[in-house]
C-alpha cells in the first residue's frame, strides 16, 4: 500500500465523513462545496512499482555456474594439434561405436524396427516408464537373493540420468557423498552443481584398483548421505571380488549409509572373472543400482537407463520411492520407442553377441597391456572388464613434462594419439586408454606411444649426471 494526496471537490450534502469509506478515502469531516486535500491509501499493482531496467543484465544461475565436467575442463584447455603426417587415433572417448567396428546385434536392431513399425510408442509414457518395460527389466535382473518387481524399476534417459536421480533423492545441499578416486567424473559434476560435497576415497592400483577401505571409512561423518561404488570400473576396468564387495557392504551397514551402485558395465567382465551384482550380497544395506543399455548392448545414443531399487528391509520406505517418482516427473521419461523394444532386446539378444564383444575387448586390453608393459617409464594396470585400461607414468623419467596433461598433449602433437589424462579423474600421473578401437589401430597406437616414450625418457642416472654437470 502507498499513501498519495489528491484534490477532491465535495458537493454540499451536509454529511460529515470522518473515517474511511469503502474506497479507501479519508475525508476528515468535510462539509459543503470545497476542494480539499485528502489522503488516499491506494492499492498499486506490484508491476507498476518496479523500476524499469535501464539495460540488459541476464546472468546464469548458480547451479549453471557450479556445473563443471572435469574432462571437458581439462580437454578443452589442451593444445591438441595432431601430427599432420599421422592419422589421428583417439583412445579417449568411452563410446564403443565411434570406429564402427563394434555394431550392436541384429536382434537389437530388429526390436527397434518392430517398435517403430507398431506405431504404439509415439506418445508419452508414464514418467517412470511403461509398466511392461519396467517388468521386463525387473525380470531380467531379478535374483533369488535380490528379487525385483516392476515397481522396483525406474526407467531413465540413460544411466547418467539414473545417477542424477539417485543422488538427488538421497542428498540435500550440505550433505556429502563418497566417490571413488579415480572415478567417473559425472558424479562430481552432478553433486557440486547441487551443493553437495564430494569426498574422494582412494583406489589402489597395486591391488587392481580395490578400495582403500581404511581411507573410505575415515571420510564418513554425520552428513554422509551416500556411498557410490562403480563395479566394473570406469576408468580402471577393475572388477571387484565377492569378498571385497562384502567388506564395502560391511562399512555401509555399520554406518547406515545407502549405496548408489553404478553397474552400467555389469557382466562386461573378461573370461575367468565373475561379476557380482552388489544387491544379492547385502542383507540390510539399501541400494539404488544404476544401469542401462549403453555399453553392454553397444547403443549409448539410445539413452535408455534404469534404477533398480533394492530395499528388502524397507529402509527407504515409501518416501524414497515417491521421491524418485516425483524427480522422474521433471522430464517426461525415457525414449518411448526404446521402451517399446526393451523387452525383446533383453530377452532375444543372443549370448554369442555378449561373448563376442567381451572377447574382443579382452584381446585389445591384452595387446595394450603387453605392449606398454615393456615401455620404460610406463606402468599399465591390467583390467578385468569394462572398456578401459589405466597406465601409470613415471613422471621423474619424463622431465620435459610437468604432469600427465602435458604428457598426453605432446603425445597428440607428435604421434596423433589421444589418451585421456587421468587428472580428469582427479588421479594425476596416469592416462586412460579406451580399448574398443579396431585391433590394428590398437597395435599402431601402442607402437606410437612406445616411440614417443623412447624419445622423451630419461634414466635416473642420466638425470643425476646432468645435475652434477
UniProtKB/TrEMBL annotation:
Catalytic activity, reaction form: L-tyrosine + 2-oxoglutarate = 3-(4-hydroxyphenyl)pyruvate + L-glutamate
Cofactor(s) annotated in UniProt: pyridoxal 5'-phosphate
Residues the record lists as N6-(pyridoxal phosphate)lysine modifications: 295
Keyword annotations of the record: Aminotransferase, Phenylalanine catabolism, Pyridoxal phosphate, Transferase, Tyrosine catabolism
Pathway: Amino-acid degradation; L-phenylalanine degradation; acetoacetate and fumarate from L-phenylalanine: step 2/6
Domain Aminotransferase class I/classII large: 87-449
GO molecular function: L-tyrosine-2-oxoglutarate transaminase activity; pyridoxal phosphate binding
Domain of life: Eukaryota
GO term, biological process aspect, one: L-phenylalanine catabolic process
InterPro entries registered for this protein in UniProt: Aminotransferase_I/II_large, NHTrfase_class1_PyrdxlP-BS, PyrdxlP-dep_Trfase, PyrdxlP-dep_Trfase_major, PyrdxlP-dep_Trfase_small, TyrNic_aminoTrfase, Tyrosine_aminoTrfase
Keyword Transmembrane helix: no
Keyword Transferase: yes
SUPFAM superfamilies registered for this protein in UniProt: PLP-dependent transferases
UniProt-listed Enzyme Commission number(s): 2.6.1.5
Enzyme class: transferase
Subunit structure: Homodimer.
Summary of the function given for this chain in its UniProt record: Transaminase involved in tyrosine breakdown. Converts tyrosine to p-hydroxyphenylpyruvate.
Family of this protein: Belongs to the class-I pyridoxal-phosphate-dependent aminotransferase family.
Entry protein name: Tyrosine aminotransferase
Native source organism of the sequence: Chanos chanos (Milkfish)
Gene behind this protein: tat
